[in-house]
Specification:
Layout lengths: L7 H8 L4 E5 L6 H8 L5 E3 L3 H9 L1 H6 L6 E4 L7 H11 L7 E5 L2 H11 L4 E5 L5 H8 L5 H7 L3 H5 L4 H20 L5 H12 L4 E2 L2 H8 L3 H13 L3 E4 L15 E4 L2 H7 L5 H6 L3 H18 L7 E5 L5 E7 L4 E7 L10 H9 L7 E4 L4 E3 L5 E4 L6 H5 L1
Parallel strand pairs: 1-4, 1-5, 2-3, 3-4, 11-12, 12-14
Antiparallel strand pairs: 6-8, 7-8, 9-10, 10-11, 13-14
Helix pairs in contact: 8-14, 11-12, 11-14, 12-13
Length: 393
C-alpha cells in the first residue's frame, strides 16, 4: 500500500520554485517512494548501485549528460558529493530551470556541508522522517492501543509489507545503522558501539548526561559526544533543547534525548512483544518519545522548523514541551495515564505564573477524549493529536 505523504504537496510546490530539491532523512523513511510518487515522469537513479556510482564518480559530466534534458531523481546523493558542483554549474547556466534535480540523502554530515557549499540559494531542503500519526493511521487505522503503537513504531515498510517489528528493526540496525555509521566514522569495536546505542535507548525522554552515558558505555567523554553527533546526523536520535527565557530562575541547560522512532527504541531495549511495553519501567518515557517526535514531524511535514523546547528549573519545576510561535508560547504536558487530574497540569500553571503571556496550554494524555477547561486549557487524547500543531500556529 502506497501512502501519500503529508509533505508531498509542499515538495511539488517547492519544485516549481527552486532548481534543486534536497530531501534528507533516515534510511527507510520513504524518501525514494515519495520522490517517485511526486515525480513519476522523472528518471530515478539510485547511487547505491555500484555501476552507476562508479560512472558518477569517474565522469560526473557524462553521468549528468544522460539526463541533461529532464534532470533526474538522484537517490543517496551523499555517495557522490562531487556531483553537486556540476549540478551547480548546470542550474546556474539555466536560471529558468525549476525542479530539475531531486536529491535525497541519509546523512547530514556527509551531505549538508557539500549542499551548502555548492547549492546555497539554489535548493530547498526538506526533512522526511518515518510516518507521522496521520500517515500511519492511513495504513492501519486510528490507534487505540498505546503498547502496540509504541512497539510497532513508524517506519513505513513495517506497515506496507506487514513485517514483524522485531525482525524488521533487527535487520535495520544491522544493515543500515551499524553499516552506515561505521562508514562515516571509524568505529573499531562494534560491540561497544552497540552497547552505547542500547544505553541511548535507555535514556530516551531523559535529560542527557553525556559523562554518565560515556562511563556506562566504557568510553571517554569525547567519544560519547562524537557518537551522539553521529546518531543525530543520521536521524536516529534528536536532541530537544531547553528554552532559555529564565524569568530569574536557574534553568537546566542540557538537552533531552529522544529516538526519532519509538519502535526502534523499544527494539534496542529488548522489548519483543507489545505486552512487554505496559510493564516496562520506561513506558512513560517511550510514550513521551512518541508524542514529542510526532509534534516535531507535524512541523517538519509543513516545511517548518519544529520550534519545540522543554523547560525545567533546578528546583524541579518542568514543562514537557514549549512551542514558541510568533506571538506566544504554548506549554504542553504529556501524561501516559488514561485519566486526567488537576495535578497533570501543575507544570503549566507554574510556568504561566512566571510567564502570564503564555497560552493556556495543552495536556496530551493516554485516554481517548478531548475537552477544554474553563481556563482555556485543552486536554487531548493521544489518538487525536494528528494535526495538533496546525491549531497552535
Amino acid at each position: 500500500m502506497l501512502i501519500q505523504r503529508t509533505i508531498q504537496a509542499d515538495l511539488i510546490r517547492l519544485a516549481g520554485q527552486y532548481p534543486v530539491i534536497t530531501i534528507i532523512g533516515p534510511r527507510q523513511s520513504g524518501k525514494s517512494t515519495l520522490t517517485k510518487m511526486a515525480f513519476p515522469d522523472k528518471p530515478y537513479v539510485s547511487l547505491e548501485q555500484l555501476s552507476l556510482r562508479d560512472f558518477a564518480l569517474t565522469d560526473p559530466v557524462g553521468f549528468l549528460n544522460t539526463h541533461a534534458k529532464e534532470g533526474a531523481i538522484l537517490d543517496e546523493i551523499q555517495r557522490v558529493p562531487g556531483l553537486l558542483a556540476e549540478i551547480q554549474v548546470r542550474v546556474d547556466a539555466r536560471p529558468e530551470l525549476k525542479g530539475a534535480y531531486i536529491l535525497t540523502g541519509s546523512h547530514q554530515f556527509m551531505l549538508m556541508e557539500s549542499v551548502t557549499q555548492s547549492l546555497a540559494g539554489r535548493t530547498a531542503i526538506l526533512k522526511l522522517l518515518p510516518f507521522s500519526l496521520v500517515e500511519r493511521s492511513a495504513c492501519v487505522g486510528t490507534p487505540s492501543d498505546i503498547p502496540q503503537l509504541l512497539f510497532n513504531g513508524f517506519y513505513p515498510r513495517i506497515f506496507a509489507d506487514n513485517l514483524d517489528p522485531v525482525e524488521a528493526l533487527s535487520f535495520y540496525v544491522t544493515t543500515y545503522v551499524e553499516r552506515d555509521l561505521r562508514e562515516i566514522m571509524a568505529i573499531k569495536d562494534l560491540t561497544v558501539f552497540s552497547r552505547f546505542l542500547r544505553l541511548c535507548a535507555g535514556r530516551t525522554g531523559q535529560i542527557l548526561n553525556a559523562s554518565s552515558l560515556a562511563a556506562d558505555a566504557g568510553i571517554n567523554h569525547n567519544t560519547a559526544r562524537a557518537w551522539l553527533s553521529l546518531l543525530e546526523a543520521s536521524f536516529i536520535i534528536t536532541l530537544l533543547q531547553p528554552h532559555y527565557n529564565n524569568f530569574n530562575k536557574r534553568l537546566i541547560k542540557a538537552p533531552k534525548l529522544y529516538f526519532w522512532d519509538v519502535g526502534l527504541a523499544c527494539h534496542l531495549l529488548g522489548i519483543e512483544r507489545a505486552e512487554q511495553v505496559v510493564s516496562h519501567p520506561l513506558v512513560g518515557s517511550l510514550f513521551e518519545t512518541f508524542v514529542v517526535t510526532e509534534l516535531m514531524k507535524q512541523r517538519l511535514n509543513r516545511v517548518r522548523d519544529p520550534r519545540l523546547y522543554y523547560w525545567r528549573d533546578n528546583a524541579g519545576h518542568e514543562v514537557d514541551l514549549l512551542y514558541e510561535s510568533a506571538d506566544t508560547v504554548v506549554p504542553i504536558e504529556i501524561k501516559l495515564g488514561a485519566t486526567i487530574q488537576r495535578e497533570s497540569w501543575k507544570g503549566i500553571d507554574y510556568y504561566r505564573s512566571l510567564n502570564p503571556k503564555a497560552a493556556p496550554g495543552i495536556v496530551i494524555y493516554g485516554g481517548s477524549e478531548q475537552q477544554e477547561r474553563s481556563s482555556g486549557l485543552r486536554v487531548i487524547g493521544f489518538s487525536l493529536i494528528e494535526n495538533l500543531m496546525d491549531s497552535c500556529t
